[in-house]
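Input structure tokens:
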């Protein structure tokens, strides 16, 4: 067959052609074959924003793994998913509608508001589809799932009811992170997903004094003065040492370890925390006077003496640990602020003030009553809402919880069945989080989300709770068709309370919706509408085989999926998980549109191509858990180091196969040493990439492909040019085989470029419809590979000497001496040609006047325990040269034999041998850098050959065309051309060579004609 003419690559153009071919051919659909299914979970993004680098990175992994598994014979469904509920959608709808508060939403109407939410979450679906398609990610958009679909939501409420029936769901008043802007609580795991949730914030810190019933003043410290009107207790550490000191004549108590911080020294007496527990005190404010069991000193394990006074003020409505400690002694939780974090009428002086605005008035009033001891300012790491970025508060809210603490140990056990990449995440970030997991708040007092399927009697005199897990159950009890599970329609489902004989009370749904993470955590079963459909399929294919997201999802999607899988099915949700790092801007900071600190994705696609971006991201440390700085130069480096060499190999093949008029065929029978080496390396490539991809080590797979491509272009092709020039069928077949297998092996990593090359090479439908290469079909020759690698090391070191000596590569030299234990005799011609020397002398290290020396260093720490005082004698001998190494490698210093580990023996170059260098595998080389007139003339002739070849290309001649040459040069160059006329004519396919001597010494001029 005739191969396409291949010129300089326009990778974006090539890629667009491949994408058009796939679309017309239906290649993706054709790849969905086979019975052995590999289950991949596609974490759903929000579609009310445009995709960013994080989506791009994860999307590439989501494409690499399924492509690879498809080639391994698996069927891999890739349904795209959309995360549609929750605050992101609500905040966007509020922005569009110009709404600020929940009250304004209720005034507009929940139906209209949720319609706006529905519209916002699907706003950018077309842009997402275009973006995903351009990055060459194969995904099924036609059968996508959306968390807003009734089928999906029905599976979600089934999960809630199942947990409820198992006793794993409860309702309680608990202190939670609370966003006053969005008027809803958050789960604790949401505060640990992103590093920027915690931001530096400056707040007032105050020390206040309360008077104990025994007359002393007790000092307490807080960084939230706004919580002091809600104070109901003071906590001490039972085992903490406290001191009574005189301050302005008053006995004052604080932790002894904090005396210096306050400048106190006059200790009257000392107490233990246990001596203070149970004492009552006069409250700072009288707003909560009469509260049961309040205003006493209690014990708390979280009290420390690291800062403050060693006494913690307790406001059980606004501190998680406060509430637990107060609950233990019967102190109730009393709320003083509303849903928007404004003080209520419970505290009249501050009514209507936002809690942060109330800090100053509260401090002013404490100062006026004499309760303020000290006021400071503190900059501390403070949690912010990950959606709206406002500072959070902690607030007691009525919420529904999954009792994670009951299944925590089982979650830890099931984690052992998961393969994590990187491995340290299993027992590190994820494992530690599981070990300390708390109950999960799953209700949100918002509007757009899956409903909490709980109906409660509106009359406490006739209590009843109904929990529903299906649309069928709802339709049965409420007697109407249920088409939409969203508010307000689901709220309209009411019925008389069956337990009320008066018939006056009504069953009404609790108004909350489910945490959007409950939606996401249900993805594995809800996407297939389990248990209402696809029951057999799900139960046979759960857990999923693979998921991927960034490291923060160890506290998000990975975590919530694991919680629900453990609670519902007593199984992990997934078998393998890749948790990657974070993509950063070119300044090492978080990517920012305003700072423009990252290259525009579309511009990169249009300039370098999607494969270039894929290679940059997939070959980087980010897939091993590190973070990655994105720069345009780094993306282009991937093009230069991998894509262009691969393309050049393909171009070289087409050039010489077409010139010889032959077709390549798959063959591994060539006896030539270079062909055998390339094919043996090809087998190693397949084994290595397969091993890496089986372990989801994509970056190492990229390393293996790049290394082989470098060998292919910079060693095999360069050293085989004469064979291709002569039309060697063995060479053409070997390169054909290498390119065919390399394209299949690299197909998941470079799907567009390999598709174009492979189809041009084979004429077949698609590389992505072929099987993964079988390494068993390729020859193994580890001995040859090892010898060739040693030869390449020799050439590399010799080339470094040339460069350091300022001698160009085309200048022949006389001799290279190689002192090594490796058997390189069969490779001497290759070494000579590569290094451009006339003679290569192989010898052993001991057989020549070596320009190297050895240095013995004694490890005193290792040798000392055995040798005792003699170790000093050995050290002295090592420095004076009184030591030797026997033929069998035994080291003796100062007459004492040393053992392995007690010394290091280093070989170094002796002074004055600039044309010598050590070999990485042991031994050294010596390059004779003397340039004789004869050698210089040959070097000039080779420079002329290069100039002629360039002139041939510039004139448009084919590689096989015969040409006539005219060379005009200075007398010295002209003489060199005449001396090496035969060499020049042979190398350039010249039928005639006229040499014109330029007596004025002008620059070399070459004329080429047919």
């Amino acid at each position: 067959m005739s191969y396409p003419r291949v010129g300089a690559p326009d990778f974006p153009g090539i890629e667009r052609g491949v994408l058009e071919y796939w679309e017309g051919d239906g290649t993706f659909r054709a790849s969905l074959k086979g019975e052995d299914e590999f289950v991949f979970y596609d974490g759903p993004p929000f579609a009310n924003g445009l995709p960013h680098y994080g989506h791009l990175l994860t999307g590439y992994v989501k494409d690499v793994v399924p492509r690879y598994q498809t080639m391994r014979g698996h069927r891999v469904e890739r349904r795209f998913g959309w995360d549609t509920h929750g605050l992101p959608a609500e905040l966007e709808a509020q922005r569009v509608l110009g709404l600020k508060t929940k009250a304004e939403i209720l005034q507009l109407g929940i139906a209209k508001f949720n319609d706006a939410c529905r519209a916002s979450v699907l706003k950018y679906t077309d842009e997402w589809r275009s973006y995903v398609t351009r990055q060459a990610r194969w995904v099924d958009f036609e059968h996508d799932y959306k968390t807003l679909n009734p089928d999906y939501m029905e599976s979600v409420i089934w999960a809630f009811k199942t947990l409820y029936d198992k006793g794993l769901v409860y309702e309680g008043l608990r202190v939670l992170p609370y966003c006053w802007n969005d008027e809803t609580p958050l789960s604790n795991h949401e505060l640990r997903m992103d590093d920027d949730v915690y931001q530096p914030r400056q707040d007032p810190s105050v020390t206040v004094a309360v008077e104990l019933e025994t007359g002393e003043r007790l000092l307490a410290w807080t960084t939230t003065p706004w919580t002091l009107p809600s104070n109901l207790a003071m906590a001490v550490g039972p085992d903490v040492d406290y001191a009574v000191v005189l301050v302005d004549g008053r006995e004052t108590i604080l932790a002894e370890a904090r005396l210096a911080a306050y400048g106190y020294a006059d200790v009257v007496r000392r107490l233990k925390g246990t001596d203070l527990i149970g004492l009552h005190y006069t409250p700072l404010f009288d707003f909560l006077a009469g509260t049961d069991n309040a205003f006493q000193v209690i014990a708390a394990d979280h009290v420390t003496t690291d800062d403050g006074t060693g006494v913690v003020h307790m406001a059980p409505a606004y501190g998680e640990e406060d509430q637990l400690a107060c609950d233990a002694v019967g102190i109730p939780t009393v709320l003083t602020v509303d849903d928007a974090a404004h003080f209520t009428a419970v505290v009249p002086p501050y009514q209507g003030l936002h809690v942060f605005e109330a800090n100053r008035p509260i401090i002013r009033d404490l100062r006026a009553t004499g309760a303020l001891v000290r006021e400071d300012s503190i900059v501390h790491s403070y949690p912010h809402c990950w959606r709206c970025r406002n500072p959070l508060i902690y607030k007691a809210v009525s919420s529904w919880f999954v009792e994670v603490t009951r299944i925590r140990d089982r979650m830890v056990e099931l984690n052992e069945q998961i393969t994590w990449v990187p491995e340290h995440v299993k027992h590190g970030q994820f494992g530690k989080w599981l070990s300390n997991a708390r109950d999960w708040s799953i209700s949100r007092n918002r509007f757009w989300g899956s409903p909490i399927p709980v109906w409660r009697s509106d009359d406490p005199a006739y209590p009843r709770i109904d929990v529903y897990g299906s649309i069928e159950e709802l339709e049965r009890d409420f007697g109407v068709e249920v088409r939409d599970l969203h508010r307000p329609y689901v709220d309209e489902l009411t019925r008389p309370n069956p337990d009320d004989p008066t018939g006056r009370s009504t069953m009404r749904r609790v108004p909350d919706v489910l945490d959007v993470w409950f939606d996401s955590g249900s993805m594995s079963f809800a996407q297939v509408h389990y248990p209402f459909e696809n029951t057999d399929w799900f139960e046979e294919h759960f857990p999923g085989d693979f998921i991927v997201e960034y490291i923060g999802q160890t506290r998000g999607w990975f975590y919530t999926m694991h919680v629900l899988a453990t609670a519902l099915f007593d199984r992990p949700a997934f078998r393998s998980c890749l948790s990657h790092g974070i993509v950063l801007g070119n300044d090492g900071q978080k990517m920012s549109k305003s700072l423009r600190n990252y290259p525009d994705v579309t511009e990169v696609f249009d300039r370098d191509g999607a494969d270039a971006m894929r290679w940059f991201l997939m070959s980087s440390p980010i897939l091993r858990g590190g973070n990655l700085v994105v720069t345009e130069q780094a993306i282009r480096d991937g093009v230069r180091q991998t894509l262009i060499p691969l393309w050049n190999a393909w171009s070289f093949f087409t050039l010489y196969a077409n010139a010889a008029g032959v077709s390549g065929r798959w063959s591994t029978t060539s006896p030539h040493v270079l062909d055998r080496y390339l094919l043996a390396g090809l087998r190693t490539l397949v084994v290595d990439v397969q091993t890496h991809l089986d372990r989801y080590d994509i970056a190492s797979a990229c390393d293996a492909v790049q290394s082989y491509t470098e060998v292919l272009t910079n060693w095999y092709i360069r050293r085989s040019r004469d064979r291709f020039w002569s039309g060697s069928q063995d060479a053409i077949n070997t390169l054909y085989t290498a390119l065919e297998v390399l394209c299949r092996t690299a197909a998941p990593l470079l799907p567009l470029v390999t598709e174009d090359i492979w189809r041009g090479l084979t004429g077949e439908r698609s590389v992505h419809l072929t099987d993964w290469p079988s390494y068993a079909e390729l020859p193994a020759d580890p001995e040859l590979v090892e010898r060739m690698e040693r030869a390449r090391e020799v050439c590399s070191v010799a080339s470094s000497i040339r460069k350091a000596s300022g001698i160009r590569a085309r200048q022949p030299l006389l001799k290279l001496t190689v002192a090594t234990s490796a058997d390189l005799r069969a490779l001497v011609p290759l070494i000579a040609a590569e290094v451009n020397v006339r003679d290569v002398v192989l010898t052993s290290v001991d057989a020549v006047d070596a320009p190297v020396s050895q240095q013995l260093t004694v490890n005193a720490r290792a040798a000392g325990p055995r040798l005792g005082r003699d170790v000093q004698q050995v050290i002295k001998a090592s420095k004076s040269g009184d030591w030797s190494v026997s033929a069998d490698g035994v080291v003796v210093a100062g007459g004492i034999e040393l053992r392995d580990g007690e010394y290091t023996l280093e070989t170094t170059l002796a002074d004055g041998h600039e044309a010598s260098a050590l070999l990485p595998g042991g031994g050294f080389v010596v390059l004779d850098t003397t340039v004789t007139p004869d050698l210089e003339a040959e070097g000039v002739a080779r420079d002329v050959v290069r100039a002629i070849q360039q002139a041939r290309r510039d004139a448009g001649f084919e590689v096989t065309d015969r040409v006539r040459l005219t060379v005009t040069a200075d007398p010295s160059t002209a003489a060199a051309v005449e001396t090496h006329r035969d060499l020049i004519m042979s190398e350039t396919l010249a039928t005639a060579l006229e040499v014109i001597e330029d007596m004025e010494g002008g620059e070399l001029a070459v004329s080429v004609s047919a």
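The chain has 35 helices and 38 strands. The CA atoms of residues 743 and 758 lie 6 Å apart.
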